Structures are given as C-alpha cells and as structure tokens.
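Consider the tokenized backbone below.
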C-alpha cells in the first residue's frame, strides 16, 4: 500500500551557503536524514523545480517541493492474529506482547511473527520500515511495545530511543536475594567464546545501565522492578546473570538445577518447571510523536509470572 507525502517550503536567507540535504532535514524534521537524501537523489525533492545533488549549496530563498511515494518495505506476508492493543491513534500503537511471539521475521521464524500480524491489522503500516517496529522484546519476554504507524512517528520514536528519553520498566523473578536496590553498569557485547550469546565485556561493548529495586523476597528468589537507561540485546538477562542473580526460567543465561536440587523442595520443582525467562515489560513512557506530550502506559504482570509468585508463596 502506497502513502503519498507532499511538503513545500522556502529556504531561509540564513541558510545561504548550506547544503541542500542539511537544509531539507531541518525543514522536514519528521523524516530521517538518510530518507531525505534518498528522496533528493531519486528526484522526489526539487529545488526551484530542478533535481539537484544532496550536497548542492543553496543561496537562500529557493522553493523546495517534496513529492514522495512511500512503497511497501520488505516482502513479508500479512497474517491474521489476535493482538492485545493497549492504545492506538493515527500515529502509534501500543500493545501487550505475549510470551512466545517472535517480533520480527528472521532465521527459522519467517511466519507467525508480530510483524506479520501488524501488516494484517494495519495494512498501511507496510510503508513504514519494519512495519513500524522500532524496538523489540525477546520471544519469551512479555509486555509493552510501541509501534509507529507512520514514517513521521517512526522517525520520532527512533530518535527518542537513541537519546534514551523513552522510559521502560520491567518486572522479573531472579534467583537469590538481591540488595534492596542497585545499578548494574557494564558494557554489553558478543560473548567472547559463545557468539550466539551476549555478555558484559571489557572491550568493544556498548554502554549499558540497568537499575533494579527488590519488591519482595520469596523463598530462594527475588521479585524485582527494573528500569533501563539503555536498550542493549538481552540487557536485563545479561546484567542480572553477570551480578549473580539470573532470571528464573532463562534457558541461555539462567541457572541449571541438579536433579537432586529439584527434588529437594517443592519450591525448586515449581521454579524449574517455569518454561520461559520470568521477565515482563510492565511500563512504557514516551513523548507522543504528534502531540509532543508525555504519555505513559502500564499493564498488569503477565498471568504466568503472577501464578508463579502465588505458587511459591503458597508453598
């Protein structure tokens, strides 16, 4: 499905001597610099009715006209699926992702992903890169995600994620009794020997900071509230494992119990039987791309994690 974009403006005299791509990015801030450069190169953006190069120096006073057609990005198939939509307007969609749902098609998961469901739920989103998906949750992590329904919203949300102004809070069940609160500050990169995993590394990692607060101690585990400053791959899972409190049910970074431990207590048996990492994105806050007002959403803890807590408390 195509979307047509039409904008026009006049170059300010104060921008005399500046490059076209720089001026156009300032005139049309709803779009990324890379997208604007592509439009200039393809002839969708004209200066006084002429096609010019992105690095053309402007004199000031020129007329800029943008006539662009947004085409479907990617060749993914739309698939009907039930989506738990928490909030929706013409710009964004906030949903509560269930555990077990892959967010984006990839190796071994080309169908049945959230992206496929979004294309069916909102066909116009096909013209937005990655069907509006600007951040991800792991397959077995549940909770809140925001999706951009327009190019303008996508540009805004990506910018907010990059400057760390999006607020994301999680709840988790981890092994051990943590401090009442703490901060994990450790760069994250590829595991030095197991390339399918991430790890806290000394070199070539990306800065990562995770705040946590203990909500309760429940037998051999802790119920935590966590807040991200950054959004690295597997960040909470890696950070909590790194400081000795891995997530319950985490098959990659978690704790493996011996058969003797499992049979030593009903609590260990229940915990060992939890089939996914006990992690839920419970709260999300951001500046709305269109209204520029702060909005925040919160959902209940996922039912399976709530049930796990109830089971442990009952033993």
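A designed sequence for it:
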């Amino acid at each position: 499905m195509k979307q047509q974009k039409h904008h026009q403006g006049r170059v300010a005299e104060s921008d005399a001597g500046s490059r076209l791509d720089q001026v156009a990015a300032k005139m049309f801030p709803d779009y990324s610099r890379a997208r604007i450069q592509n439009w200039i190169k393809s002839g969708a953006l004209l200066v006084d009715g002429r096609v010019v190069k992105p690095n053309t120096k402007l004199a000031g006073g020129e007329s800029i006209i943008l006539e662009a057609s947004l085409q479907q990005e990617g060749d993914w198939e739309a698939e009907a699926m039930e989506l738990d939509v928490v909030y929706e307007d013409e710009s964004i969609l906030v949903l509560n992702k269930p555990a077990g749902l892959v967010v984006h098609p990839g190796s071994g998961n080309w169908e049945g992903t959230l992206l496929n469901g979004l294309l069916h739920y909102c066909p116009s989103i096909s013209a937005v890169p990655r069907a509006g998906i600007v951040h991800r949750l792991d397959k077995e992590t549940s909770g809140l995600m925001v999706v951009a329904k327009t190019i303008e919203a996508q540009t805004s949300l990506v910018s907010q994620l990059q400057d760390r102004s999006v607020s994301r809070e999680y709840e988790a069940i981890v092994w051990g009794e943590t401090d009442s609160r703490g901060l994990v500050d450790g760069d994250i990169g590829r595991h030095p020997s197991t390339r399918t995993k991430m790890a806290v590394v000394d070199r070539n990692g990306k800065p990562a900071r995770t705040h946590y607060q203990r909500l309760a101690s429940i037998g051999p585990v802790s119920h935590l509230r966590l807040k991200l400053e950054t959004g690295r791959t597997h960040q909470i899972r890696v950070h909590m494992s790194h400081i000795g409190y891995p997530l319950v049910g985490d098959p990659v970074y978690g704790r493996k119990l011996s058969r003797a431990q499992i049979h030593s207590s009903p609590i260990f048996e229940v915990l060992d039987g939890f089939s996914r990492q006990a992690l839920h994105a419970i709260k999300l806050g951001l500046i709305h791309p269109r209204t520029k007002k702060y909005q925040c959403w919160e959902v209940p803890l996922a039912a399976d994690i709530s049930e796990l807590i109830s089971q442990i408390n009952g033993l």
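The chain has a mean pLDDT of 92.
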